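Query structure, 91 tokens:
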């Protein structure tokens, strides 16, 4: 059960990453402050979701679907490291 939640968190993080990419494409001088603030908030949300997803993946280690747990853990750790690096490098 926790492995499905971990995968859902990683998929939601992926969808929000696509939203950040789309917002970054439409950024111009008129709305750069609003969009950059929105991108920062979305990046922080992705960071929180990936932490929760990684915790859920670790809790589901005892489940029988080991491959699913492994993929969920890797995806959440990938988003966690990516957005941790982005937030730290931009602050």
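Result returned for the query:
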């Amino acid at each position: 059960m926790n492995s499905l939640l971990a995968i859902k968190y990683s998929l939601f993080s992926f969808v929000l990453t696509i939203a950040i990419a789309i917002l970054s494409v439409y950024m111009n001088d008129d709305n750069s402050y609003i969009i950059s603030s929105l991108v920062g908030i979305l990046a922080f949300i992705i960071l929180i979701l990936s932490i929760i997803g990684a915790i859920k993946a670790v809790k589901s280690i005892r489940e029988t679907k080991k491959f699913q747990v492994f993929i969920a853990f890797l995806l959440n750790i990938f988003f966690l490291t990516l957005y941790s690096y982005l937030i730290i490098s931009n602050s």
